[in-house]
């Protein structure tokens, strides 16, 4: 199903399809975004309130995964016809910023396997380079939650997705979970990998000439881990 949605505060309409899942733009979510987008927000507030949104994203992403019937017996001896995850899961944060999303995933799915992938983008050319990977041996048989808080040009996401595909992970088994994105990033991923689903809490207006999203949130990793702070002697 195709949906039309407008980012709060803009007149830009973005065309979403069934593979792009935007969290409901509730007043609560907008209030949380207002806190974390403030350039004067304290780091502890940024970490806490982005964590709340990441938990929402995690729950939404899990809801996209396949389930199978699973019956249990209740304390009163009756049968509850329930569900359980049909396939094994793995979370794959894109180091370093993606690691900001790992704790919330672990809190929702205790014991989940965690892979790692390190892709760095050249600040001048904006091109990504793959430096490191660590995955479960059976990753090709797992449902993958690929974690990165920002999907801007799509270069890093495409490099990470390409790495997973080379290991045998089907596109339809990948859910890309991102805090914030923009039309350019969505288009880049959807055109190359239409089977990959995207879950996000916000779609920005556009990229500027320096590939920063507008109105934006700044460098998520720096703000989350505190590396944007002035150096002390």
Describe the structure concisely.
By secondary structure, the protein is α/β, with parallel strands linked by helices. Helix content is 28%, strand content 30%. The protein has one domain: 3-Layer(aba) Sandwich (Rossmann fold).
Question: In words, what does this structure look like?
Answer:
- It is a single chain.
- Helices cover 28% and strands 30% of the residues.
- The chain is of the alpha/beta class and 233 residues long.
- The protein has one domain: Rossmann fold (3-Layer(aba) Sandwich), CATH 3.40.50.
- Strands 3, 6, 7, 8, 9, 10, 12 and 14 form an 8-stranded mixed sheet that branches. It has a two-stranded antiparallel ribbon with strand order 1-2.
- Strand 6, helix 3 and strand 7 form a beta-alpha-beta unit.
- Helix 1 crosses helix 2.
- The radius of gyration is 18 Å and the shape is globular.
- It comes from Streptomyces roseirectus.
- Its cofactor is Mg(2+).
- Pfam families: UPRTase.
Which SSEs are present, and which pair or pack?
Layout lengths: L2 E4 L6 E4 L3 E3 L4 H11 L5 H20 L4 E7 L5 E7 L3 E7 L6 H7 L4 E2 L1 E6 L6 E7 L8 E5 L2 E2 L3 H12 L7 E5 L1 E2 L1 H10 L4 E4 L5 E2 L5 E2 L5 H6 L8
Parallel strand pairs: 3-14, 6-7, 6-8, 6-10, 10-12, 11-13, 12-14
Antiparallel strand pairs: 1-2, 4-5, 8-9, 15-16
Helix pairs in contact: 1-2
Mean pLDDT, to the nearest integer, reads 90
Regions with little confidence, pLDDT below 50 for 5+ residues: 1-15
Largest sheet, in brief, is: 8 strands, mixed
Strand content: 25-35%
Structural class: alpha/beta
Distance between the termini: 56 Å
Along the chain, the helix and strand elements come as EEEHHEEEHEEEEEHEEHEEEH
The radius of gyration over CA amounts to 18 Å
Proportion of residues in helical segments: 25-40%
> What's the level 1 CATH class?
Alpha Beta
User: What would you say the CATH architecture is?
Assistant: 3-Layer(aba) Sandwich
Count all strands and give the number: 16
Number of domains: 1
Shape: globular
CATH topology: Rossmann fold
User: Helix tally?
Assistant: 6
């Amino acid at each position: 199903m195709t949906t039309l949605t407008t980012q709060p505060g803009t007149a830009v309409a973005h065309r979403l399809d069934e593979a792009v899942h935007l969290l409901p733009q509730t007043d609560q979510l907008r209030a949380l975004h207002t806190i974390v987008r403030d350039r004067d927000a304290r780091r502890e507030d940024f970490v806490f309130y982005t964590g709340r949104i990441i938990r929402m994203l995690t729950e939404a992403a899990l809801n996209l995964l396949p389930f199978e019937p699973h019956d249990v017996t209740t304390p009163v001896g009756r049968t509850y016809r329930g569900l359980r995850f049909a396939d094994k899961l793995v979370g794959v944060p894109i180091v370093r910023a993606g690691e900001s999303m790992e704790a919330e995933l672990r809190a929702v799915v205790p014991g989940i396997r965690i892979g790692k992938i390190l892709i760095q983008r050249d600040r001048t050319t904006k091109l990504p380079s793959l430096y490191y990977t660590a995955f479960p041996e059976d990753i090709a048989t797992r449902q993958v939650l690929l974690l990165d808080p920002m999907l801007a040009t799509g270069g890093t996401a495409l490099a990470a997705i390409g790495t997973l595909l080379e290991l045998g992970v089907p596109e339809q088994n990948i859910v890309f979970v991102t805090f914030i994105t923009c039309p350019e990033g969505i288009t880049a991923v959807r055109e190359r990998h239409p089977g990959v689903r995207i879950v996000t809490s916000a779609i920005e207006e556009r990229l500027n000439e320096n590939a920063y999203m507008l109105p934006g949130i700044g460098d998520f990793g720096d703000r989350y881990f505190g590396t944007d702070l002035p150096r002390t002697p």
